[in-house]
Fold this sequence. Notes:
Layout: H1 3-19, E1 32-38, E2 43-51, E3 57-65, H2 68-81, H3 86-102, H4 109-112, H5 128-143
Antiparallel strand pairs: 1-2, 2-3
Helix pairs in contact: 1-2, 2-5, 3-5
Organism: Ligilactobacillus murinus
InterPro entries: NIF_FeS_clus_asmbl_NifU_N
Protein name: SUF system NifU family Fe-S cluster assembly protein
Amino acid sequence: MSLSSLDNLYRQMILEHADRPHHHGNLPAADKQIELCNPTCGDVLELEVKLDDEGKIADIAFNGTGCTISQASASMMTDEVIGKTPAQVGEMVEAFSEMITKNEDKDYEDLLGDAVVLEGVAQFPARIKCATLAWKAIYQALEKEGKAHE
């Protein structure tokens, strides 16, 4: 597959997640809730998390408004963190941040799944905060209880 075909596929995935976000809505009986805002562009994200008896993420939902990158990133993040422990989520958040801020030639797919398609955001510094908003939200929601580094 040519590089331009791969870029088009990635763009299509981002648009699909933004147009039809996964886990969008409210979560009854959430254990953790957080709202974050990106003051630079006005993106707002409300995140709700339900943990199972083992402390893993059993379910997650998000609401809010934002640009295509923000909404797509939130959708992809919610897909990837279900079933993960707070410690695993912490690793994922660190890897995601590294991927789009340092732009290192590293393979993040095993850890981040489909969210690796957002790697190209590194080329657009103004969009980095949009892409990281949901990842910061999940980290902070779990960290509030001291759970992000267990």
